Structures are given as C-alpha cells and as structure tokens.
Amino acid sequence: MKRGTWWLLGLFLTPALVVLAGLVVWPAIRTVFDSFYGPAGQEFVGLQNYRDMFRFDRMQTAIRNSFIWVIAFPTFVTITGLIFAVLSEKVGWRTAFRLILFMPAAIAILSSGIIWRIMYETNPDRGAVNALVDIPVSLFTSEGDLAGASPSTDIASFDQDGLVVRFEVGDEGGTVAVGVIGIREDEIPASAVQASTILAEPPGSGVVAGVVWRDTRPGGGERGVVESGELGIPDVRLRLLDAAGSEVGSTVSEADGSFRLEGISPGAYSARIPSAEFRESWGGISWLGPELITLSAIVAGVWIWGGFALLIIASGLAAIPGELQEAARVDGANEWQVFRRVTVPLLAPVLGVVFVTLTINALKMFDLIVGIAPGSVQDEANVIALEMWRTAFTGLGNRGLGSAIAVFLFVLILPVMVFNIRRFRVQEGRR
Amino acid sequence: MRLVRVIALFAVLALVAAACGDDDGAPTGGGEIEVMWIRGADHPEGQALIEVLDAFTAATGVEVNYNGVGDDLATILSTRVTGGDPPDVAILAQPGLLRDLVSRGAAQPVSQTVQDNMSANYAQVWADLATVDGTLYGVYFKAGNKSLVFYDVQVFEDLNITPPTTWDEWIAVSQTLSDNGYTALAVAGADGWTLSDWFENAYVRTAGPDNYDALTNHEIPWTDQSVKDSLAVLEELIANPEFVAGGRDGALATGFVQSITTVFATGDAVMVEGPGDIAGIAKEEAGAEVGTDLDFFPFPSIDGSPPAVLGGGDVAVALTDNPGAMALLEFLSSTNGGEIVVGTGSFTSPNMNVDLSLYADDLTRSIAEGLVSAEVFVFDLSDLVPAAFGGTAGAGIWGGLQNWLQNPDNVDAVLAQVEAEAAAAQG
Amino acid sequence: MTTPDTIAGAASTDPMDADPETVRDGKTSRISQWLSKSAVQIVLVIVALFWLMPTIGLLITSLRPLEEFARTGWWTAVTTPSQLTIENYADLIGDADLIDAVLNTFYIAIPSTVLPVFFAAMAGYALAWIPFKGRDTMFLVLVGLLVVPLQMALIPAFSVFRTFGLSGLPAIWLFHTAFGLPLAIFLMRNYFAGLPGSLIEAARIDGASEWMIFLRVILPLGFPALASLMIFQFTWTWNDLLVALVFATDQQPITLFLRDRLGEFSSGIGVISPGVFISAIVPLIIFFAFQRYFEAGLLGGSTK
Hints:
By secondary structure, chain B is of the alpha/beta class. Helices cover 52% and strands 13% of the residues of chain B.
C-alpha cells in the first residue's frame, strides 16, 4: 500500500464512521441499556418495563393493531401492485397510469393521512368515501317522507312493520287520527295544506276516514286534535288490515292529509303506515370510528404505497422474457393461467422483496396514523411506533418504558430486515 | 459535476441562512424578556397577545421575544426548566402546572405591586388560584366563561322560542324543537373535556359550590350521591337520543369543532354548549354572524340555583428574576393592562375594574359581564386536578363521562372506576 | 429496495416502458381479446381516477371557503363552480409562518441530503477501491446498521446532542445523515465497484492522489447513482415528521406546521389544504424533473 494510505482511508471513512458510531451504534446500545431503568433514567428496574409494556391498555391495542398492519398491509399493497403492474402492461398509456399510482409517494405520509381523514368524513354530504357508498345505497333505500317523525299521542305506535293505529269500525264507520310530530314544516311535501277536518263528523256506514297530519303549530296546540295552523301530510301510504291481518284496502293521503276507504264492515282494524315512510337518510359509515379506524388507515396505506409496489413489480415483470408467457399461451393457456402459472412464480423473488419491505414499513407506521386518526380515536388507532413516541416524548416522558418499546420494535423488525438484506446480497451476489 | 457543485453551494447557503435565521433569543437581561405560551403567532389569540406585549413594550421600554410553542408547552417548558434555561414569563392554562413549577422552585413570587393590583381589581378566587402555600405567584390576565349555550337564532325566531333560564324550561324548549322536527343539541362526546364542562356546570348547580370544591379536592368521593344525582339530571338532556344529534353514538363520535358546525353550518342541531370560543369558531368555520345567526344564553339554573359561572383562565408566571418579567406581571394585573387585553377583542379579562364598554362586541361583553359578576364562580374542575385524572383522553374524568354517555344505566360501575382513578391520582 | 435480477435473459429496462404485449395468434379469438383489452382499459381508467380523487379532492377543498367545507362535499364545486375561491391561498401567502415553514423545510432537507450522500460517496469509494484489511467486514457491518430503526436511537441521540449543545437544525441534519448512511453506503459502494478498474489504476499510475481520483474520476462517473440517491434522500427528509417532532425547536418544517394545525379548536382545513399542496409541490417537481436519474441510478447500481 502506498504510504499515507491509512491517512487517506481515515479521510474517506471517518465522517461516515463517526456519525454512525455516535448517532446509530452508541444510541442503540444505550437504548437497550435505558430500557432497564426507570422513567427518568434514575433507578434500575430490570425487566419491569418489559412487563409493564404488555400490561398497559394502550400498548396492548398498539401491539394488536401492529399485528393487523403486518398481516394485512403488505398483502393488500403487494396484491394491488401486482394486479396493476400486470394489467397496465396491456395498455399504451402505462407510463401515465404508473405515474398516477406512484404520485402519492412524493407527498408526505402525514399529508396523505390528512387527505384521507378529510375523505373519511362520516356525513355522506361531506365525506367523499361515504358519498360514493351512498350512490348504491340510495338506489335501494331512500329517505321516507316521514323520516324522524313519531306519533303525537299513544293511539299510534311503532312496530317492526311501521306505524300502526288500532281502531274499531262501527255502524257509523270508523275514524283514524294519525298525528305526528318530530318533522319540520319544510320536510313535508310542498303541496300540503291545512289538515282536513274530515274527522269532525261521522264518516258514514262502511267508511273509514282519517287524517295524517303534523300535530304541532306555533304555540304548540293540543295533541291529537286537528287544529287550525296544522298541516296535513300528503302522499302517505296507508294500508288497512282487518283483525286477522289481511289487507282490506290501501290508499294514499290527500293534500290535506285526509284519506278515505269505503266498503269496510264493522269490526276491529288496524291502519298501518309502512316503515319505509319513516326511514331516515343513511348516516354514513363511521370510517374514523374506533372499530374501523385501523382498516381505514390500511386502505389509505394502499393508496400511498401501491404505486411503489407497482413500479418494482413492473420492473421485475419487464425482466421476464416474453417467450415464456408466449409459450404458455401457444399451449392454450388463457390469461389467468398464464398469470398464475408462469408470471407469478417468475415474479416470486420480486414479490418477496416488495412484501418484506412493506412489512418493515408496517412495523414502523407512524406518520399516517398521526395524520388520519382524530385525537379521540388515537388510542384505538395506536401502533407500536406511535406508542413509543407518545410514551417517551409526550406527557411526562417515560424514558425507560419508551426505550423498552423501541427495543421491542427492534426485535420485531430485526428478523425481517435480516431476511431482506440477505435477499439483497443474494442478488448482488457477484462481486 | 457542475450540478454537484451547485448543490453543494446551495447546501452551504442553506447552512448559513439557517444559522442566521436561528435566533436563540438568549435573554439579554434588563431590556428584554422571553414570553412563552401555547398560541402561535398565526393564531388570532397569539396575535392578540403580541398586541398586548407591544403595548407593554411601549409603556415600559422592555423588549419582548414572544414564543408560541403549541400544545406541548408543558413538555417544552419542563425541559427548559430542567435545562436551567426557562423563559422569563410563561403563560399556563392549568393551575396544576403552576403548582408544579412552584414545587420545583422555578416560579418567582409576585411583587408587592402585583399583590396590590390583585386585591384591588380581582375577585379573591383569581388570587387563590395562583396562590401556593400562601404565596401569590401569578396573574390571571385572561379568563374564559364556560357556562354558555350558543344557539341558532333563526330557528328560535321561527318557532318563537325564548331562551330558557331554568333547566325545566330548557327541557321544554328541547321538546318543542324535537316536536317540530329539529334536533335540540349537538354534544361533542368525542372530546372528553366538553363532557366534563357539561358535568361541572350541572354539578355546581345541583350540588352547590361547596360540594364542588370538596369534589375537586377529593374530600368527597366520585361515588357520592350528589354526583349520581347530578348525572341523573344531565341524563334528561344530553343522554336523551331524541334531543342529541346522532343520538348517543353520534355524540360520542362528534368532536368539538364538529359540534359547532353541526349547529351553524349543516343545521343538524340547534344548540351547543361550551366556552366563549364557540362564537369565533362558528364565524371561522361556518360564517355565522353574531345576532343574525348566532347568540347565546347562560347555562340555565337547576332547581333555583343561583347564577353560576364555570370558568377557566390563563395565568402568567415569572420564572426568572429579570426585572422585565415582573414588570410584565404588574402591567397585566393593572386595570390599564386589563383594558388593553380586552381591547384586542380576543380576550376576556377577570379584572373587575375594566370598563366593560371596551369589549369589541355585545356578545363578548355579555360573556365578560357574566364572568365578572357571577354570584358563584368555580374554576374548571378538570384543570384543577392532576392531568392524569382530569385531562387525559380516554381516562379519568373524560373517559368516565364518555363511558357514562355510552350507557347511562351503568352509572354505578362508571363512577366506581372514576373514583378509583381519582384515588390513585389524588389520594 | 432494489431491482431484482434473478431472471437470466433480457436486461431490465425502464419499468415505465415494459415491452408491449406481443400479438397472439393462438387459439383465443380476436373478439374476446378485444373485449378483455377494453375491459382492462376501462378498469384502469376507473382505477386511475380513483387514485387521483383524493388529491383532486384536496385541491378543490383548498379552493373553497371554509364555510362550504363544513356544509358540503368538494364535489359540489363541479355543479356550482362559483363557490371556488383563492382566499385560502391568499391568506397563506401572507402567513409568515407558512413561508418560514417552507424555508425551514429546505434548510432541513438540503444539508440532510448533501451530507449523507457525500459521506457515503467517500466511504463507498474507499470500501470499493482502497484495499485494506477487514474491508469486507466493515462494509457488512455498516450496511448491517440498516436493521436499527430510528426509534432505537431517538432518546439517547437527544442526549448526545444536548451534551454537545446541539439542537434544532444541526441536530436534525446529523440525525438524518446517520440514518441515511447505511443504505447510501450500500448503493454507492456497489455502484463504484462496478466502475472500470482500469481508469482508476491508470490514474494511480499517473500519480494522482486518492482524493483527486475521487473528485475527478469517481464522482463524475458515479453521478447517476449520486443523483438518484439525493432525490430519494431529499424526498424522505422533506417529508419527514418524526425526526422533526423530536429535534426541531423554533425552526419548524412544514410537516410540523401541518400537524400543529390539526387542532382541537379549529378544523384547520383552511390552512391545511393549501398547505399540503404547497408542501407536495417541491418533491413532485424534483421527482418529475429528475425522473430519469431516479430509475437509471437505482437500476445501474444493481445490474452491474
């Protein structure tokens, strides 16, 4: 070796070595050390922190959630990347497509979390995700005219089929007064007019007459009685059932809320308004609620990392000689079989690298949770990396426990990392 | 290669610029002080405080370096104190933090001038809150009234409703609203502190201020009948699914800002209870104008209870012997200072001698009036107890009330849990 | 991450331009071929739209007044474009804190990029071309440090910095440097190792010092790898949250600025929605402008 080479080596290597030794090696060792000490680093507590770690609710939730992340996240993202890498092969605008999917990688993960937090707003009028879900939902169900209403007196009551009023039809006919409250004036059809006074006189033999009306007016008024200033509710569907439960007639209320059925013989009857009329508008799924927050965050994670997986898998795909797939097709295999039997096995190493990298990311997940989870569900959305920061750097700052969590995280990541590095080395084999 | 050089040049420039931009703000003593608070300079309250500090500088010649550090103030301040480099003045929202600083020997007792100002201008309770072991350490220059119910003016007018003054009237108003198809209340159950404000308002009215103090000091347990009775009353209103937007589950999923927009933006509810900040937030988030869209009524009395105000406040404490620090406290505790604080339009002052006409608008003035003239005044209980019990999400008082709202029938088990946590935190 | 090269045969090229599907003359009918191709097109278009929706949604949100945000969803802007406004951006431009945050993010990202890449280049060259005993072991150990997660070093690093009186920006630079080094050294060393030894030998014979060789031969040749590494590192540090959370003092980058606005007393959307865009623009520009280096470098380093 030339003279002075040692000095040169020092020049080249020292900066990196010093920084690494001082900020990676030594602190890592120190963290292990600290994990055996108390919150302020004063007293030696042995394994107490490790025991405590698993006992605290927050940490238990964090471990459970991290487990879910590790299982679900790499799987979903890899599959997404794989499917779209293969599909985009077939179109001319693949570059644009791949760029679009990869773009979220440029945005800070925190920002992506925030973007999705906004999208997951529960109210379907405000949150994009629920608005989309609302489209099919509203095909099958829609808000009833009487949504939110309830009977004003107890002559009417709800059962599983809707609102029911039981009454008698006598020789002079029968009357049904269905007063409802809990509905705004602007929520009933615009054609509504003053409620009918049809009930003031006996309907006549064989006739059932009734009124469906909004039983409230400025100043309140008396319940169960149609008064001036109270509006009838038009277009309400009513069914008349006899004592045995068979339908003997049905009708729809008029603009003044009145309805009339003829040819009804005396007896006990029930008038029913179907529950569909009372159906409330769909309130939206609570994506950011305690039950769904982790799943919702994983979906956001797929959006963020899907493009990355796609790019790597696509480059692997490009390295597969086209002849292999061609041969399979010539042999009569359809696209799915080519995919399953030829493409995927050949991609296995790439898929492995992607999957493992994502697993490491899943364990380190931090920014996304901070961005997407509102304060009230932070505990339910907790993951190990977040718990570590909260324990060590917020509130009272528990150095010992925080270090123990960090060590725990390290122990979880280590095998995965080693596996990944081994793969690097296998592929970089020759030197 | 050239590109590398260019980048290297940028890097150097960045280093230089950063070094120049980084202002340590090392206290120069005498002529300059550092003031620390949670509000950043971009926040309306931060800007308002800067206005006050500028007036202070103009009056005394002492320069101020304002440091708005955000919600982690407790942690940051603690680190600075441990490191022997505290700010000259810190403004704290929790009395507990003040006690903590005093016990670490970090807080400076106030000067005689401040003491004189306090007895002249403030009700005793404000001095008591800043007193530890008989020595006064701080000045409550800013206070908040948390016994307010804001409502949608338009709906009240349409239905000819007058704001209720008693609990029974409030229930009746809620029923009327419900009958007419409106949802009476938006309750922010996702944020524990809003529920604790509800509870404290109810408790001081059903059990009285003496019991309130006793509960605060854990002289009576949380399983006491007075607590149960209070919750039973509260249940009539905020645990009634008919009266609350989204029902109980909806309430538990609603955050503070959301509860305000539910009333003033989407119109899915008519009333929302909370601190004076609501007016500003409703304006910011929903464009609600005072008078035409929004107004408030004081939290109604329960069974004839006297007018009571639940309040909070921020206390300024001197942490160094820099004479400028004490000068600031003297300024803040004086009526002149109080009037400047009020004049910014962002703050309410507990100073009784501040001219009420200085308040920028009627709303703030009425709120301030309620605060200053309250027959019964209690400080927010959850701010007075240790933070682990009174100020931690999902635990202690906050968690307990959320559990209660989820299932009010379970009140005994919930209170037992809260009592256990209180015992652990307060003894 | 690295590009796999376990498949013998065609060298991998730009992943964006994979070979187009070869035409089949097999037993599958042309019609079903056309059908499946259209189906794929449609599916991909829908997926692309879905993928763009969150960002577009945010963009529109940033162009709406805050009151509208509380009332209705951003898609209503399609039917009522009159609600769009630039008031959020206008407010921000005047907001000194945002400008500071953007500047601070540059102040953080640039040195945090240049330092590790430069140190890694030096170390990489030494590990590739300066023979010494234990060289391979050292390389393995240095790269092996990849296994240490950030969290393992945060708390003690905090103390290390305090001992040396470092905080804020210099602390962040050094920490980012430390954790960027293992991967950077790996990539640099591998790339340099693939350079023609003859050039280096020739330079040595000519009497050039190692430092000269490094500056005049290695760096220019290694430029694609350097560039791609810098893009990666810059994006990473620009978007970082955790390190800034722990070490930043009064000079806060934009991630902290955004996080602070997620407050309890305000939805913050009026500031956050334009803020996210402004924050995303820089890495997006860098990514698109330097795209070719990004791929070439990554691939070049591994397919030697």
